[in-house]
Amino acid sequence: GAGVSQSPSNKVTEKGKDVELRCDPISGHTALYWYRQSLGQGLEFLIYFQGNSAPDKSGLPSDRFSAERTGGSVSTLTIQRTQQEDSAVYLCASSLAAVSMNTEAFFGQGTRLTVV
Amino acid sequence: GNSVTQMEGPVTLSEEAFLTINCTYTATGYPSLFWYVQYPGEGLQLLLKATKADDKGSNKGFEATYRKETTSFHLEKGSVQVSDSAVYFCALSGRGGFQKLVFGTGTRLLVSP
């Protein structure tokens, strides 16, 4: 597609339920990132996929969070047993290769998750 | 680890005023520095970048100079417009292998006519 697409754009869920957030990166981009944007805080890195390499999961805040990327394209971020502190905007980005001085990351519009 | 500190907002200006949004960083080595902008209802997009000391990034009338001696990358614009109202994020990425983007907290700019 023309840009990074995320769905849903908004999600309201009850505490304790599981949610899945989807990201469609730009076609041909091998690198995919998930970030979380909480009110009053910066963008928090969650996880990074690069080609067929093992993902960098160092930013996932707890074992309730997981992500996968199927076929090197679409990615799904899953949050199990959601808590109110999970409420945030979840952003996905993709780039041709790992972010560097010569590579730009393109962001989707995000999924706003509200846990009630 | 690497970190970015930017001034808190909101910054409220009248049209044609001069803008400065301060950004300082902590990093090992020589990171690449970025400013991203998030317009209302849109995703983050790269505004400008600088990859080595004394480089000046510029775009849409915005400028920022990579100052290694002060570890700063302040964003400036000589004359802001209402359409510049957005949230601005300073970010850095280290060098070598995968280096994730590390963002500041963002600064909201509000420009009134």
Explain how this protein is built.
The complex is a heterodimer of chains A (116) and B (113). By secondary structure, chain A is mostly beta strands. Chain A has no helices and ten strands. The mean pLDDT of chain A is 90. Chain B is mostly beta strands. In chain B, strands 2, 5, 6, 10, 11 and 12 form a six-stranded mixed beta sheet that branches. The radius of gyration of chain B is 14 Å and the shape is globular. In chain B, 37% of the residues are buried. Chains A and B meet through β4, β5 and β9 of A and β6, β10 and β11 of B.
Notable characteristics:
heterodimer; A: 116 residues; six-stranded mixed beta sheet; B: 113 residues; mainly beta; four-stranded antiparallel beta sheet
Most strands sheet of chain B: 6 strands, mixed
Which ranges of chain A are low-confidence, i.e. pLDDT below 50, for 5 or more consecutive residues?
none
Distance from first to last alpha carbon of chain A: 33 Å
SS summary, helix count of chain A: 0
Structural class of chain A: mainly beta
Strand residue percentage of chain B: over 45%
Topology:
The complex is a heterodimer of chains A (116) and B (113).
Chain A: E1 5-7, E2 10-13, E3 19-24, E4 31-37, E5 43-50, E6 65-69, E7 75-79, E8 88-95, E9 106-107, E10 111-115
Chain B: E1 3-6, E2 11-14, E3 19-21, E4 23-26, E5 32-38, E6 45-50, E7 56-59, E8 62-65, E9 75-77, E10 86-93, E11 102-103, E12 107-112
Parallel strand pairs in B: 2-12
Antiparallel strand pairs in B: 1-4, 3-9, 5-6, 5-10, 7-8, 8-9, 10-11, 10-12
